[in-house]
Amino acid sequence: VEFLYCDLASMKSIWQFVQRFRAKNCPLHVLVNNAGVMLVPERKTEDGFEEHFGLNYLGHFLLTNLLLDTLKQSGTHSHNARIITVSSATHYVGKLHLNDLQSRCSYSPHGAYAQSKLALVLFTYRLQHLLTANGSHVTANVVDPGVVNTELYKHVFWVVKVAKWMTSWLFFKTPEEGASTSVYAAVSPEMEGAGGCYLYNEKRTKSADVAYDEELQRRLWTESCKMVGISDESSRAP
Length: 238
Known about the structure:
By secondary structure, this protein is an alpha/beta fold. It is about 45% helix and about 10% strand. It has one domain (about 10-235): NAD(P)-binding Rossmann-like Domain (Rossmann fold).
């Protein structure tokens, strides 16, 4: 195991991480996008992005795109490289505000978090479409880990914290249990060659209806490229 530092809330840090990783000339068979914050007060990343959208979504969007060439070179016909992105059941109530992705008009921690998680599902489906169109030996899937007992809840109201402390043993998954579906997506032979899936408890599940809107997927992808400063290669794809 080797640790390389990467701050998903910093575009500069992501670029630097990718440069260090590429310098090692290593193959990349599995990428798990798992960083995140939840219900934080209104604040911005160093690049000026609303923190939920910037860290949860844009950081992963840029990282994945910068590593795509390595992933494509590492995948083979019999062993696809795999991209796993961790979303949340919160995406079911999320709304994507394309004209206000930074939640500047009216900020709601719950709304901003849900939007970032919906964006991750839309991103995964669009990414799989592009990978398939290019004949790449890479698959992209999105995972719902369930309700997991982690520090992600440190910004919730104190009443919720007390309730969580009292009931976590009964209703919350352990971190190991929460990671199981991501591990399944990353290594299970059953998922070989399967992409564009939403997984919960190691089973393929239907995501929110809006996540299947291909026009919304395209528009979000194009806008995301502009925001992180990369070229939109998908503009030539169907």
